[in-house]
Specification:
Keywords: Hydrolase, Magnesium, Manganese, Metal-binding, Protein phosphatase. Pfam families: PP2C. By secondary structure, this protein is α+β, with helices and mostly antiparallel strands. The protein folds into 2 domains: 172 residues, Phosphatase 2c, domain 1; 61 residues, no CATH class. It is 17% helix and 35% strand. Strand 9 and strand 10 form a beta hairpin. Helix 1 packs across helix 2. The longest helix is centred in the middle third of the chain and has 18 residues. It is globular, with a radius of gyration of 20 Å. The chain starts with a strand and ends with a strand.
């Protein structure tokens, strides 16, 4: 499990020494996050006079048959991109396959490097982010990492002043807490890219993929009954993607970075959210 949580605060908390931050410097906050039980860090967004408090948690999921399985998650926290106090990146990368850990770390590292050096980032964040993902995907194919059957999903949030650019590739997720009267509601910032979505189902079918659950592949269910566009039933195996004449890759998501055997598209989906006083915090998780 990987998670990055960012809390939006309307006023600056007092800094330990009363001084200002240097570029890229992280300041620990005095309290701990209630869920992660790790120290909160803070970063100022000076253009709109608020701060972000943030914390992280990464933990290997429990697998009964492989208790010593490698944690393939990685996370990204990069404050003050290009030494700009109003630009920050938070993200989670969920690797999969034999070399999933290498893939998630590769994408994590290169994303920060590319965004930090892209002079067009603030002029056109949508274009810059899409170009970054496509470049990273190509670089991963050409690297020493075998990504034929391995890759990573990616969910990241670029904070530019009071605007969030939520960038999704795969089935990791971002949500935001919104105050609505006396209630606090969770709203999706991203939509999972799986074949449960009708548009993704139709797209991968046009690319030549077979969309079948494990039960359909093994003959326990009718392979002619498609699940595209339907809600996932708890406990059932999701529809997965297979090449036309083979029993792989079997992924439950329809986009990722890497996975060169199955790849037809690695373009991320990007949503834009303007922060208001009713937005309390956001969370990126695998």
């Amino acid at each position: 499990m990987g998670c990055v949580n960012g809390k939006c605060c309307s006023r600056y908390p007092s800094s330990p020494d009363g001084g200002s931050d240097h570029c890229g410097e992280l300041r620990p906050y005095k309290s701990k996050h209630i869920l992660t039980q790790r120290s909160l860090e803070i970063v100022h967004v000076s253009s709109h006079n608020f701060t972000l408090q943030y914390s992280i948690l990464t933990q290997l999921g429990y697998y009964q048959d492989t208790v010593e399985r490698e944690n393939q998650d990685s996370f990204c926290i990069k404050t003050q991109i290009q030494c700009n106090p109003n630009v920050h990146v938070f993200g989670v990368f969920d690797g999969h396959g034999q070399y999933g850990a290498q893939c998630s770390n590769f994408v994590n590292d290169r994303l920060v490097e590319i965004l930090s050096s892209d002079s067009t980032l603030l002029d056109d964040p949508l274009k810059a982010y899409t170009s970054a993902f496509l470049a990273i995907n190509s670089e991963l194919h050409d690297s020493e990492i075998d990504d034929t059957m391995s890759g990573t999903t990616a969910i990241t949030v670029l904070v530019v002043g009071d605007t969030l650019y939520v960038v999704n590739d795969g089935d990791s997720r971002a949500v935001i807490a919104v105050k609505n009267g006396d209630q606090i509601l969770a709203e999706d910032l991203s939509v999972d890219q799986t074949s449960f979505r009708k548009d993704e189902y139709e797209r991968v079918k046009l690319c030549g993929a077979r969309v079948l659950s494990i039960d359909q592949v093994e003959g326990f269910k009718d392979p002619n009954i498609q699940n595209g566009g339907e809600e996932e039933n708890e406990g059932s195996d999701p529809p997965r993607l297979w090449i036309p004449n083979g029993m792989y890759p079997g992924t439950a998501f329809t986009r990722s970075v890497g996975d060169s055997t199955a790849e037809k598209i690695a373009d991320p989906e990007i949503s834009v959210v303007k922060l208001t006083p009713n937005h309390l915090f956001f969370c990126c998780c695998k």
